[in-house]
Structures are given as structure tokens and as C-alpha cells.
Amino acid sequence: MLDWGTGEQPPPPERCDVAVVGAGIVGLSVARAFVERDPGAGVAVIEREPRLAAHQTSHNSGVVHAGIYYRPGSLKARLCVLGARELRAYCERRDIALREVGKAIVALDAAELSGLAELEARARRNGVPGIRRIDAAELRELEPEVRGIAALHSPHTAVIDFAAVAHAYAADVEGAGGSVTLGCAVEKVVGTGGEVVIHHARGQTVAGHAIVCAGAWAGRLAPRPGRDTPRPVYFRGAYQQLRPQRTDLVNGLVYPVPDATLPFLGMHFTRTAGDRVIVGPTALMVGAPDAYRLGRIAPADVRKTLAWPGTWRMARRWWRTGLRELAMATSRRAFLADARRYVPALGDGDLVPAGAGVRAQPLARDGSLVDDFQLSVQGRVLHVVSAPSPAATSSLPLGSLIADRAQCALGLGGPPGRSQARVRE
Ligand SMILES: Cc1cc2nc3c(=O)[nH]c(=O)nc-3n(C[C@H](O)[C@H](O)[C@H](O)COP(=O)(O)OP(=O)(O)OC[C@H]3O[C@@H](n4cnc5c(N)ncnc54)[C@H](O)[C@@H]3O)c2cc1C
Questions:
Q1: Structure confidence at residue 277 (pLDDT)
Q2: 144 CA distance to ligand 1 centroid (A)?
Q3: Domain 231-369 maps to which CATH number in 3.30.2010, 3.30.9, 3.30.70, 2.60.40?
Q4: At the topology level of CATH, where does 15-57+163-227+372-422 sit?
Q5: What is the residue with the minimal CA distance to atom 2 of ligand 1?
Q6: How far is the C-alpha of 182 from the C-alpha of 413, rounded, in Å?
Q7: pLDDT at position 420, please?
Q8: How far, in Å, CA of 268 to CA of 390, rounded?
Q9: Which one is predicted more confidently, 2 or 284?
Q10: How many CA atoms lie within 13 Å of 320's alpha carbon, on the beta-carbon side?
């Protein structure tokens, strides 16, 4: 059994059928889908960091989304509803805690009611179970300290530790004969006729096919983008948490009515799987995929972002939102004031910093933010170009879908996957 996270590991195999770059929840789910459908397949996962799930998978809200927000028919909508169902069953089998704490999306005033109605219609079209409109009195029963005139209640929205799920996927991969190598950065992925050569920190692995699931670093291993290919930009999402004596202010999940033109859900209160209450994330555009500290800047990324016309078009359109996010990221008072709009009883000393995550978001040339999962196939390599939220919730059917796509597009053998029948493009 591999000792994930400690000790020296053997290098990745010199040859394998399928190489997966990245041991976040998406890469591990893809690897799991391959070994599940063909236990004899030689699958090798290669991860740069010395531990599993080191980036987005362990720096998020930990919410198993029910599928409310997403455009009906989109991959996000289909894979989220299916993913939440499959994850629930998986966690039961693997004894991983998944707590249905329920979510209220709260309208603060009459101006937000049309947004709430639009979300309700989407949720119904997406097949979200148990969704229900509630009035102010019912909201008070669920969440006595939360202010609002109405809400959309999703009783089955749950919380989980996605890093624990990623560890379970890795155990499945290894248990079926695959390998997971940590601390081994992939430098480049080169398709050469009948095979792919993965150049990494411990030498080379020659694979029949490769799936690149590098999260926020997807662009680094992708082929040169075309003139109009959307470019990744990075949004830092900072959290605060309620101090332990004040966690009774919120019972479950409390979300705002989001701006429908942006792919972010807005700052929310989350009672986590570990029973903390976190508040966030903010959404400040930053200059590096690992900007966990506010001051972290990668000059090459900043240069690329500034050179991209989409950046300036987005800035012209969203400068007010940008300034507001800057205030929230740099001023505890601004953050508290925003949180207080939902929980007025929050006091000055009730919030303490609780880390941050970084989302990679493809930005189109026209300044619009691309809002769905994005895959691209180049020769024998499939790139997961973008897997934003709710990719962690959707990880099981997303992994199956990617394995299906690879089997079709890359000409891989083996039986068609489960998702092919159920998720049609
Ligand atoms: C603030 C925030 C809140 C979120 N909240 C939620 C939520 O509540 N619910 C939900 O479903 N989703 C949520 N998400 C989204 C979710 O976390 C991501 O969609 C998901 O974790 C993506 O998984 P991944 O495997 O693609 O990326 P990651 O987890 O980032 O994994 C990518 C891996 O690739 C590795 N890698 C990169 N480059 C290389 C290389 N050159 N060589 C080898 N390895 C490499 C990285 O080290 C990393 O381990 C949130 C995201 C953020 C940032």
C-alpha cells in the first residue's frame, strides 16, 4: 500500500496504457473510471505535490451542490445532479461522512425575488430533488438569525470533505493495480505518433494515451492556444470563519441570490463537514494559480493576463464588482458588513481568517467568462481545460464522461463507460 503524503515513493512506471497528470479529485476520478471498467489497464497518476488533493480539491467550500444554478442542458447541470446522487451512494459504501445540512438561498429584498424565481425554475428543470420556495417565517424557523424576505430551500444540499473523497478514489486506483506517484512534476506531454511521452521530474513515462487534469495549471501543459482560445485567469476566494462560540448563528448553508451573469455563487455561510462555519469565498482576480497569500504574484501569468484583450473588456464591464471584491479582500470591515446583511447579529470579533482557494476561470476574447466544463483532445492527449465548481460534486460522472471521451476520441479499447448511456452530449 502506498503511503500517500509521506516517505519516498518509487518513480512512475516507464510504460503504461493511460497516464493521468494531476491527483486532484478530477484526475483521480478519471483514473478510477479507467481501472473500474478495465481492471487490467495500466493506469499511472502523476502528481507534482507531495500529497494528494493539495490544491482546489482541499481549498473549497466543501458543498455537495444539488444542481440549482446551472443552465439547463449544460454539462454542469447534468453532471451535478447525477454527481450528487452518485457521491452520496459512494460515501455510504466507503463510510465517508456526507451531511445533508440543507441550503437556503436568501432574497434580502423585493428586488431579488425575480432572481430567486429564475433559480427555482432552473432547479426544477434540472431535476433538483426537494426544492421549495419558503417565506420569511419558514426561513426564521430554519435559520433564526438570518434576515430575508423569502428563500429557496434545498434540503438535500450537503457538506463533505472532498480531500477525503480524493483519498478514497486514490485507494480505489491503487487497489485495482494502478499507481499514484506524488512529488513528481510533469514538465511536458509530447504526443509522438503512436504514443505519448510524459517528461517528468523523475524521468519519462511512455503512455498509450494521456489525460491532463492539472486544475488551475491546465494551460501550462496545453498546446499553444489559438487566437480566440479563452485564456485562464485566476480568482482568489478568501474565507473567514465564525469563532467556535458563535457557530450557532447558522444551522446549515446560507447563500445569496447570485448575479446570474457571473459564474460565482457569491459569499455564503457554510456549516462544514467538520462543524465549523466558514464565510466566503470572495472572488478577487489575482496574478497566480497558487495565490493563497494575497501578495503572491507570478510575473509570467500577470504578463499573459494583461496582454489578453478579454481582460480589459472584462474590466470595463465589471470594474464596480472588481472594486467591491478588492474592498472585501483587503478590509475586514467590508467583509463583515457584507456578511451582516444576512446575519445582522454578527459582531466585530466574531470572524477570524480561514484560508483561501484559487479558481481558474477561462476568459474569452470578448471579456465573457466561460461557464461550463471544457475538454479538448489533441492527438493522443485529452486536456481537461476547465473543471470549475461544481466539479468536485460532479467528480464521479465527470470522471466517467472523460474516460468515455478518451475511449472514443483517443481510440482506447475497453468497454464503454457507464456514463455514455446516461450522459449524452
Ligand atoms: C474557493 C473555491 C470554492 C469551491 N467550492 C466548491 C464546492 O463547494 N463544491 C464543489 O463541488 N466544487 C467547489 N469548488 C470547485 C472544486 O474545488 C474544483 O472544481 C475541483 O476541486 C477541481 O479538481 P481538479 O482535480 O480539477 O483540480 P485540483 O484539485 O486543483 O487538482 C489539480 C492537480 O494537478 C496537479 N498538477 C498541476 N500541474 C501539474 C504538473 N505539471 N505535474 C503534475 N501535477 C500537476 C496539482 O498539483 C493538483 O494536485 C470550489 C473551488 C474553489 C477554488
A1: 97
A2: 34
A3: 3.30.9
A4: FAD/NAD(P)-binding domain (3.50.50)
A5: 60
A6: 27
A7: 31
A8: 15
A9: 284
A10: 1
**In whole angstroms, what is the distance from residue 60 CA to residue 377 CA?**
28
How much distance in Å is there from the Cα of 414 to the middle of ligand 1?
A: 28
Average pLDDT, the chain: 91
Nearest CA to ligand 1 atom 51: 60
Index of the ligand 1 atom closest to the CA of residue 187: 41
Q: Give the pLDDT confidence of 176-210 residue by residue, as tens digits.
A: 999 999 999 999 999 887 899 999 999 999 999 99
Please check whether residue 351 is in contact with residue 214, taking contact to mean a CB–CB distance below 8 angstroms.
no
Angle between helical axes of 395-409 and 25-37 (0-180°, round to 10): 60
Give the pocket of ligand 1 (CB within 6 Å): 21-27, 46-49, 53-57, 59-63, 65, 185-186, 213-217, 221, 237, 281, 357-359, 387-393
Would you call 190 exposed, middle or buried from its count of C-beta atoms within 10 A (0-12, 13-18, 19+)? Answer: middle
CA 292 to CA 306: how far, in whole Å? 21
Is residue 1 predicted with pLDDT exceeding 70?
no
Nearest to 26 by CA among 70, 75, 72, 73: 75
Cell numbers for 314, please give them.
Answer: 472584462
Q: Is the pLDDT of residue 4 over 70?
A: no
Q: Which percentage of the chain shows pLDDT scores above 70?
A: 94
At 416, is the pLDDT very low, low, confident or very high (cuts 50, 70, 90)?
very low
